[in-house]
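Protein modeling request. Please complete all fields; requests missing the sequence field cannot be processed.
Requester role: graduate student
Desired output: 3D structure, token encoding
Chains: 1
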Amino acid sequence: MKIAIDGPAGAGKSTVARRLAQELGFVYIDTGAMYRVLTWKALQKKVDPENAEALYELANSIKIHFEYHSGQQKVICDGEDLTAAVRLPEVSAMVSTVASHPAIRKIMVEQQQEMAHNISVVMDGRDIGECVLPDAEYKFFLTASLEERTHRRAAELDSSGFTIDYETILHDITQRDKRDSEREVGSLKILAESIVIDSSNLSIEQVLQKMLAIIREE
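Delivered output (218 residues):
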């Protein structure tokens, strides 16, 4: 079985997807982390995020995979644990630009589809239901108000030791929403078959139970 969870930044997709996979005994694939790894590598190597050709070469030179340690999923690139590094604010600010290049998305989608081959998965991102897992049995679209998403991202950064003012985070998320919705390939959108859940006033547990009820009912 394949379950796709799409939605904008800060909607809680990764947390819900991880919990849903645990409940169902599926494998969780964090597609956003893959783009973040490439972005982090680009920053380290001073590759211009607008330079599609250089990014393509970089993407083809690295190996990304996921490992579980003590119940926690880790994203590994070329033997290095980048789980914490890919959540740095400078990576978040750049990842939409990196992910907007069609050639980069093609590489990543192929890798993600290969990971999902012959196993049951929960996968979250921006274009999972449309591009990565078009045959997914369930296509959820998880959203929340801009204000709520900003508060959540601020809390997430604060818990990680970063203090960034609300207006800066609001601006970053607004710009990211714009880039994600307008990009040429794999844009963020609600599909005709999407099951939309607004998490603005819901806890992670409530969202999880909604999804499980829908899946188990069928």
